[in-house]
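lol forgot to send this yesterday, sorry. struct tokens for the thing we talked abt
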């Protein structure tokens, strides 16, 4: 039975403390349908085009950016600066907020005002793809500019304020894809790389995807690691104090943290980074495969740790962050640590069984 917007709002009022994603899944809804049901009741339909929406977010000042997939949630505080591009891809390239945007998947967007803690109003911007899945969210913080939020809503408000949204089923996961007959050609192109961004083009040319190419290439280009390697890499980076980059994405957006990580808190199935300006929430029990990957570049090998789920979907990627063009010390520390994981470093201690559920 399809719930009406009125029924959705009534059910939501009964379970107001449930997280939106959990509520939607429990009631057979897309998250976009849940938000749309509140249009006229705290939600406003706005233009989702990144070329219009994203530049206006800068005026909000310090906010929290959130991008997630099924297994990882990436939360970063900062100001949206350095917007560029359009068409097939766009970027936000600020000191703290760093995004890769794919506008074709920004299908619907809403400005939301809802009750917060202690009578406060919780304000956010929420973008969804054509399947009703969250692509990117922006949450205002106490330091954010509320007047700029109101101006954004007024400027981007759509004439059609429908409280329903049409969606299509999400495609089935592709799974690892490779062609053994093309292995030597893949390895030749891999060896000739001068920039990591060339890799996607290479695997498309050979009719493969990322996980399929890693499995086919094998060592020394790609080496399978233990499933706890992501946790161990986070702990080692925190202990060593060297900056890293953490990529989490979905169809419409990739969000990147660049800098140190400090407080690594395992709780139940979750591995959490709980730092003042950056939080990561990772379902460690969703990790099925982890790969150590090396790609040649003009500045030396790019060494990454990449985690995939049981159906072959990419969960996250981790790279070193070069402190400056002149300094590669942090890169060297990361490379040594990451390669050490492939040689059988000791496993971390057992995780405490206390659950943390992210936003």
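and heres what i got for the seq, position by position
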């Amino acid at each position: 039975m399809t719930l009406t917007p009125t029924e959705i709002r009534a059910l939501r009022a009964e379970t107001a403390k449930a997280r939106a994603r959990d509520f939607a899944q429990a009631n057979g809804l897309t998250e976009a349908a849940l938000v749309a049901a509140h249009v006229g009741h705290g939600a406003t339909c706005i233009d989702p085009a990144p070329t219009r929406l994203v530049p206006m977010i800068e005026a909000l000042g310090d906010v929290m950016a959130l991008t997630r997939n099924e297994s990882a949630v990436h939360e970063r505080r900062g100001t949206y600066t350095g917007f560029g591009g359009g068409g097939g891809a766009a970027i936000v390239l600020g000191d703290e907020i760093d995004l890769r945007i794919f506008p074709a998947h920004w299908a619907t967007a809403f400005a939301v005002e809802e009750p917060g803690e202690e009578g406060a109003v919780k304000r956010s911007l929420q973008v969804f793809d054509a399947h009703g899945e969250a692509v990117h969210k922006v949450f205002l913080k106490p330091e954010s500019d509320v007047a700029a939020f109101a101006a954004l809503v007024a400027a981007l408000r759509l004439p059609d304020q429908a409280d329903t949204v049409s969606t299509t089923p999400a495609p089935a996961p592709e799974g690892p894809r490779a062609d053994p007959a093309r292995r030597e050609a893949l390895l030749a192109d891999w060896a000739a790389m001068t920039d990591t961004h060339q890799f996607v083009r290479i695997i498309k040319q050979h009719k493969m995807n990322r996980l399929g190419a890693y499995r086919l290439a094998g060592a020394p280009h790609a080496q399978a690691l233990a499933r706890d390697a992501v946790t161990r890499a986070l702990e080692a980076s925190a202990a060593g104090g060297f900056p890293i980059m953490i990529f989490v994405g979905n169809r419409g957006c990739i969000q990147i943290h660049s800098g140190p990580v400090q407080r690594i808190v395992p709780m139940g199935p979750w591995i959490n980074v709980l730092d003042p300006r950056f939080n990561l929430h990772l379902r460690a029990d969703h990790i099925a495969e982890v790969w150590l990957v090396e790609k040649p570049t003009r500045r030396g090998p790019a060494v990454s740790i990449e985690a995939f789920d049981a159906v072959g979907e990419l969960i996250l990627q981790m790279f070193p962050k070069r402190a400056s063009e002149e300094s590669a010390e942090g890169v060297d520390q990361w490379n040594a640590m990451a390669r050490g994981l492939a040689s059988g470093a000791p496993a971390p201690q057992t995780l405490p069984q206390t659950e943390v559920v992210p936003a």
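The longest strand covers residues 108-115. anyway ping me if u want another try
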